[in-house]
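Service request form, structural biology core

Requester: graduate student, group of Dr. S.
Request type: structure prediction, single chain
Budget code: on file
Notes: please return the result as structure tokens.

Sequence provided:
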Amino acid sequence: RSCSFTGFSTVQSRKLAKSLSRSSVRSRMSLKPPKAYNSLQKGALIWDPKPLQVKKIFEALKKGLNEYLEAHQAELDYLSGRHKDTKRNSRLAFYYDLDKQIRSVERYIRKLEFHISKVGEELYEAYCIQCRLRDGATNMKQAFSLSPSTKASRESLVELYKNVQECTEDMCFIEGALEVHLGEFHVKMKGLVGFARLCPGDQYEVFVRLGRQKWRLKGKIETDDSQTWDEEEKIFIPNLHEKFEIKVTELRGLATILVGVVTCDSINFFTTKPQAIIVDITELGTIKLRLEVLW
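Core staff response, request fulfilled:
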């Protein structure tokens, strides 16, 4: 699920690291996010960068991408072994089909390696540079504000304030660029668990939100204790700053009764294996919600 993109070139990164007097990062980056993400980008720029959160997401993302790389490398090794064994003892059509699979896996591995290098060595590296520049300008601004007020110090404060604003804007822009390349979360509804709390005929509404993305679905407890839901799967685009918010209400005629609201962090979802989630909707855990997330 990697997306091709362009970011900082290595030459531009070195220039940025060497000098404080640089043009805006946005003028150095040429980013064309996929159309599927355009609605999420409009007006979504938050002028409050969160370096610690971005670091956590980046480490989880890098770990997940390396897991995908290792899995496909293992698949390539297996197919290559079969390719050698069947070269002389198999039908020609089977041999060419195996060769086609190997080429496909090799192309995907190259895409993953490119994705890892772009996200880690360019986007995140540029983000860290901007973070250090902003911290340095902030410290200098505080030092100048404590010194005696002179014309030179006032001019320096104005310039430092401008530098802090530019670094902040650039960090937010890079966060938006990084967010586009986080992939997708496929969330599957697995039903409610409530033991004696769930009775045949009960109707529930589950509302899942991640930033501006929403998923509302309704379900009913059948006479055989099975559950039917009007939707079973939803695709969410990961968000750097937002957590999953899950709200469950019970429908009784025209009235609705709030069962509970919980939040769930998405950092642990960046992995190759489907993640089963069981969250306590009520404080005592008498009603739980089961979901499955595949990245």
